[in-house]
Specification:
Layout (H helix, E strand, L loop, with lengths): L1 H27 L5 E11 L13 E5 L2 E3 L1 E6 L7 E8 L10 H9 L5 E9 L2 E9 L2 H6 L14 H10 L7 E8 L14 H12 L2 E7 L10 H18 L3 E2 L11 H11 L2 E8 L6 E4 L1 E4 L4 E4 L3 E4 L5
Parallel strand pairs: 5-6, 5-8, 8-9, 9-10
Antiparallel strand pairs: 1-11, 1-14, 2-3, 2-13, 4-11, 6-7, 12-15
Helix pairs in contact: 4-5, 5-6
């Protein structure tokens, strides 16, 4: 009789503990999917008061499917390391010279956790004027007037691809500030799917680079051609949208009044970034998957690269 009672008690106990054990195993087991990592910027939809965002506030979608967020780390403190390239178009007009002091102030105002480099777009390459350095004054001193020669930079997107492919290995944030008219003189204007622009976007995403861009006119006829400057700004907007950055432009011909408001806005972005890790859905073939990062927190918007590279599922 006692044995029967023990059996009944054991069955009841097992029934009660099975759901608990299942939950514990689920909590300790890795989420299904392939780990993917993105740098995300939190913006305020209105004003400049950026809300705080926690891990539970973040939602990641691949199409209609929601992925599990596994980590959400502020890019601050031990995770604040940033490598920033200031990439200037050597074919820019003389108006860029009036903004060099603003760029110097921007560089020297960076925190100690930021390394800064300066390069010029020249003949399809990023010609480095100053390598990445923690000496912000040294980086600021390396800024110079552009050559101002029409056609010296056939395509700013060649230069960005070159920079992405030769960026030294590191685990720091990687960001670029491009100052250019955005015009692809090599391929031409009027094609939203410009192949060199598309290649630069893919190269930047593959290298984990977030791109910011300030439009400034180039020399020669293209510097005051509405058709060319319009498409140059469209290209820069696409580039920054798809890499998770921001594009600052004038909409019509002519240079911005000054760079200071744009640089201030970029600094706010850099101060409100997070490393996001989530479980992406593996595919039959390795490739780029479109993702949407969102939140329901009031007055907050999450900005990141629009695609993430996901390796094929193991067989």
């Amino acid at each position: 009789m006692k044995k029967a009672n023990y059996r009944i008690a054991a069955v009841i106990g097992l029934a009660l503990w099975t759901p608990v054990i299942g939950r514990l195993l689920a909590q300790n087991s890795p989420p299904p999917g392939t780990p993917a990592r993105l740098l995300v910027t939190v913006e305020a939809r209105h004003g400049t008061d950026v809300p705080d965002i926690g891990r539970r506030d973040v939602m990641v979608y691949e199409g209609h499917d929601r992925d599990q967020v596994t980590d959400w780390v502020p890019a601050q403190g031990d995770n604040a390391a940033l490598e920033l390239f200031v990439l200037l178009d050597d074919g820019s007009g003389i108006t860029l010279g009036t903004e060099l002091e603003s760029l110097r102030r921007f560089i020297t105002s960076q925190p100690a956790s930021t390394k800064v480099a300066v390069a010029y777009m020249q003949n399809g390459t990023a010609k480095v004027q100053q390598n990445l350095t923690s000496d912000h004054a040294l980086a600021a001193q390396s800024l110079r007037l552009p050559e101002g020669v029409s056609g010296i930079n056939g395509s700013p997107y060649f230069a960005l691809s070159d920079l992405a492919k030769h960026w030294p290995e590191s685990s720091a944030r990687r960001e670029v500030l491009m100052v250019t008219d955005g015009i692809d003189r090599y391929y031409g204007s009027g094609d939203p799917d410009d192949p060199y622009l598309s290649a630069a976007i893919q190269d930047a995403r593959l290298a984990g680079i977030v791109v910011y861009a300030i439009y400034t006119p180039g020399v020669g006829h293209f510097g005051h051609s509405y058709w060319q400057t319009y498409w140059g700004q469209i290209y820069l907007s696409r580039l920054t949208d798809e890499t998770g950055g921001e594009s600052y432009s004038v909409g019509f011909t002519g240079p911005p009044v000054n760079f200071d408001p744009y640089l201030d806005d970029m600094e706010r972005h850099l101060a409100h970034q997070y490393w996001l890790t989530f479980a992406a859905k593996p595919q039959k073939k390795s490739g780029w998957q479109r993702v949407k990062i969102t939140t329901e927190v009031s007055n907050a918007e999450l900005v990141s690269a629009t695609k993430v590279y996901v390796p094929a599922a193991p067989r």
